Amino acid sequence: MIAAFILSLVLTWIEYFFAALLTSTHANTIPVMVASQTGSPGSNWQAIAAPSFAAILPLIVIGVVLERYLIKA
Fold first, then answer.
1. Mean pLDDT of 3-21
2. Residue 39's closest CA among 31, 27, 51, 47?
3. Which pTM was predicted?
């Protein structure tokens, strides 16, 4: 049950297409913000790395916390 929770959390956390289609230009989600930082002249890697880390950090924390319960089962 915990493995299914982790898998569903990861799959729904970064749902880029729904976020890109359903958000307005004034309210962007993290995946849309990361994708908007790339451009044709080049990529600003610092501007991409910061929101990417912010998007991944909660998943890592939840995974580490629930790992104990997953191993016990």
1. 75
2. 47
3. 0.56
